[in-house]
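Renewal narrative, Specific Aim 1. Our central claim is that a sequence can be written position by position from structural information alone. The example that follows is taken directly from our test logs and has not been curated for this report. It begins with the structure tokens describing the chain, in the order in which they were read.
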């Protein structure tokens, strides 16, 4: 199991995101459980990011929305940075 770390920015964005998309609350919860067990599970379509987000990883919530995370293997933790549409995040 990985330890989940939510940045202040991520907490704020999640509140706003789930308020705007109540239909995705259950999917969000399920994805958090998957990430806690294995943050690079193929169901999440993980991909390494480039440019300003280098060193971070994108995970799909659905076709339109993504998580931006950072995985610290030495600490076995996942740091959540952002959630939003592809265009907003990248």
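The sequence written for that structure reads:
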């Amino acid at each position: 199991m990985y330890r989940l770390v939510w940045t202040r920015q991520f907490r704020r964005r999640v509140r706003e995101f789930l308020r705007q998309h109540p239909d995705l609350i259950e999917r969000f919860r399920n994805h958090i459980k998957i990430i806690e067990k294995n943050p690079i599970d193929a169901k999440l379509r993980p991909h390494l990011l480039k440019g300003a987000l280098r060193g971070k990883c994108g995970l799909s919530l659905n076709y339109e929305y993504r998580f931006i995370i950072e995985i610290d293997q030495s600490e076995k933790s996942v740091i959540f940075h952002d959630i939003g549409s592809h265009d907003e995040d990248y």
